[in-house]
Design goal:
The protein is an all-beta fold. The protein contains no helices and eleven strands. The strands form two sheets. Strands 2, 4, 5, 6, 9, 10 and 11 form a seven-stranded mixed beta sheet that branches. Strands 1-3-8-7 form a four-stranded antiparallel beta sheet, with no helix packed on it. It starts with a strand and ends with a strand. The relative contact order is 0.31.
């Protein structure tokens, strides 16, 4: 059974950091692109980062570039999203998702959310003083 479980969210002050985890089960991360998405209240869900499995490249939206990093631990079958220099605009529910097996890459991940076939339940990140 394919599952993605996010953890690591919470309340943090502006300028702080959090590391989100996306633990996968029922499949091996090696063969799938994994994306991180977020949805703030009243806004559409947006892609923030992606880890490509076919070449190991990483991708970031302009809003998080230089502040967020994404990494994968094959032994733990987990993808991490390290978030630094957080601002209130980063407040959202964060989701990780697995892209379908025929597309082990990140190209178009922000506009092609329909290409991600399994999603986690989300973890809340709140940035506030």
């Amino acid at each position: 059974q394919v599952q993605l479980v996010e953890s690591g969210g919470g309340l943090v002050q502006p300028g702080g950091s959090l590391r989100l985890s996306c633990a996968a089960s029922g499949f091996t991360l090696d063969f799938y692109a994994i994306g991180w998405f977020r949805q703030a209240p009243g806004k559409e869900r947006e892609g923030v980062s992606c880890f490509s499995s076919n070449d190991g490249n990483t991708y970031f939206s302009d809003s998080v570039k230089g502040r967020f990093t994404i990494s994968r631990d094959n032994a733990q079958n987990t993808v991490y999203l390290q978030m630094n220099s957080l601002t209130p605009e980063d407040t959202a529910v964060y989701y990780c998702a697995r892209r379908r097996s025929s597309e082990p890459y990140c190209s178009g991940y922000r506009s092609m959310q329909y290409a991600f076939d399994y999603w986690g339940q989300g973890t809340q990140v709140t940035v506030s003083s």
